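pipeline: protein-struct stage 2 | run 1193 | Transducin/WD40 repeat-like superfamily protein
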Amino acid sequence: MEGRRISASPRPCSGRRILAKKRACTNGFVNTVKKLQRREISSKRDRAFSMSNAQERFRNMRLMEEYDTHDPKGHCSVVLPFLMKRTKVIEIVAARDIVFALAHSGVCAAFSRETNQRICFLNVSPDEVIRSLFYNKNNDSLITVSVYASDNFSSLKCRSTRIEYIRRGKPDAGFALFESESLKWPGFVEFDDVNGKVLTYSAQDSVYKVFDLKNYTMLYSISDKHVQEIKISPGIMLLIFNRASSHVPLKILSIEDGTVLKAFNHLLHRNKKVDFIEQFNEKLLVKQENENLQILDVRNAELMEVSRTEFMTPSAFIFLYENQLFLTFRNRTVAVWNFRGELVTSFEDHCYGILTELDSS
């Protein structure tokens, strides 16, 4: 599972790296329904039992409770007009008996599952716009990532608040995180729940830092202006450097202490742009424009290729670590691949979210 990255931006409420963006759904829904109907009414054995079993399974599903993050009377003496407007909910985080809902405006509210009442708003400053939430199960706290009008919404500020304090209605009892870091755009902070780490990038001095998610202690830093991107996988980090004419330098580091485990160059076709470089455990996926997909095993340098006619550059990836598979999204097709370059299955006529980065270069 990849980390959650939030980037700084001078634009309020729009610079956050959105993970899912709805595409317009025309008749795809109708096609999917028709397929399901054909499947359910087919003459195959036990189909009637499966249909009745599904009906029983979902018979008791009903709306239990509704929560509203909008407060027409305002709160915290809000000074930003757009915080007063009703906007869609972009994040929902559940932590024990509390549900947090973050609206697109930047207002975040906490609700009690026991009383079904709103406990408090997490905006502790009148000019605070909350951009993202992260529940840190290591110390039972909620991390909020915010920007402020007083700073022209240009730099990220992180705050950690114990769930117990929020339960008592005291969201201002938290403390600031990473105060020494300059997280102005294009800087970012990325929370990696799998490895229990936080990655920050200060664009001002081109320094990446890795912190322990348990106690926020800085573990090590990476200072190299030639690093173009960092990809995080379980136990390791992949450093992608600025490409040369015929290759791209790569390094694989231990996520625990930053030790270089392997450094190598991956050969590229000259004068062709790199569509993507992705890391999945020991597998490296490299795709260039109008070229085959390359799957490299970094342990033994074994290389396999998938024809460009079979594997076309997708719009987004999802790695399934437990199943050792990955999903690709392209147009209206979702495909499932293994790391031998074989297509396992595909689904068509689905409407899905596309991973986008509003503030990426």
